[in-house]
Amino acid sequence: MNLHAFAALDPKTYVSHDLHGQGRAWVESNCYIDVWIEILHGLELDPYACLPHVLPVDFDGDQWTFFKPSHDDLFALYGLEVHELNVWRPLLENVLSQLSARHLVLTEADAFFLPDTAGTDYRQQHTKTTIGIQALDVEARTLGYFHNSGYHLLRDADFAGVFALDLPPDPFRLPLFAELVRLDRRTKREASDLTHESLRTLRNHLTRRPRANPITRFRQRFGEDLAWMQREGLAAFHAWAFATLRQLGAAFELGGLYVRWLESHGEAGLGTSADAFATISACAKALILKTARSVSAKKPLDAAAALGDAEQAWDAGMSLLVQRYGG
Q1: 3-class DSSP assignment, residue 104
Q2: What is the pTM of this model?
Q3: Kindly report the CA angle at 45 between 42 and 46, in degrees rounded to 5?
Q4: Which residue from 179, 197, 178 is spatially nearest to 187, judged by alpha carbons?
Q5: Which is more confident, 326 or 4?
Q6: Between β-strands 178-182 and 103-110, what pairing exists: parallel, antiparallel or unpaired?
């Protein structure tokens, strides 16, 4: 029996949202926001409206905030209820029950079994990521899922791998974290109403912005991290880059795109903020390449100028939004 949460989507004809378009500097940001962009798009809802959550990202000591849309925002903007799924049975049984109730399931999965990661993780390395399960056929052993920048299908051995079907029973195996998404109150707002509600969430998120420029603290930490990576090698760099520059750059690229969206919905005069956030994104993109070369060659890298530009851009972009919307 082929079950789906809300639509019989076809990966062959599915078109990703323009937030995952090839013009993006960071086509993929992190697994959680990426999967939500495509879920909202699949539900014919506008994912731009939930992007204010990227603006309070902070440097948390050894990482930039792994940004996620809050459950409260998803309900306020779109009427979607997100709850933790208690995986008290084998995951496949829980997913079968939830899809039968027309609930979407978000779950951690091993990218080793996700064919859309071919060329990186698929059948090469075990990496935790989040997928949105939208369709399931147990008899045919197929699974339709949102992941990264699109909608995909897996089958057969990958199906067994995702659900650990061929592994021997192990009482010490811990269940994966999962969530269910109730769709019965889904609301597609008129553009003006959606913009108004999005501005409300923006005001809330601006109150959570860092008390001081977080790029300053990151700049002060950068030299120490670079020396560590040069000792440890490129594997350490790739882990560091995902936790730091990728989250910083992707967050502010999305922040800039959000501000442009506001301008297109009647909020004029925000170009300074949009440009400033784009500058932060570009600085992070350039620095990630320079850092990789520095680590590989074990040569010095002076990142002060690039991060100084990003610092100034953070001040300029944030101050205009705070002046306009409070916080």
Answers
A1: strand
A2: 0.95
A3: 115
A4: 197
A5: 4
A6: antiparallel
Residues in the chain: 327
- The model's pLDDT over 159-180, given as tens digits with 9 standing for 90+, comes to 999 999 988 877 777 889 999 9
Backbone torsions φ then ψ of 154, nearest 5 degrees: -130, 160
Q: Is 86 helix (H, G, I), strand (E, B) or coil?
A: coil
User: What stretch of H or E contains 237?
Assistant: helix 234-241
Percent helix / strand / coil, the chain, rounded to 5? 50, 15, 35
Answer whether 277's CB lies under 8 Å from 255's CB.
Answer: yes
Tens digits of residue pLDDT in 201-229? 999 999 999 999 999 999 999 999 999 99
Query: What angle (nearest 5°) sits at the alpha carbon of residue 150, between those of residues 279 and 253?
Result: 10
Alpha-carbon distance of 237 to 118, in angstroms, equals: 22
CA torsion, points 18, 19, 24, 25, in degrees to nearest 10? Answer: -170
Evaluated on CA atoms 23, 205, 46, 97, the torsion sign reads positive
Instruction: Give burial (CB, 10 Å; 0-12/13-18/19+) of 190.
Output: exposed
Domain residue spans of the chain: 2-44+81-182, 191-325
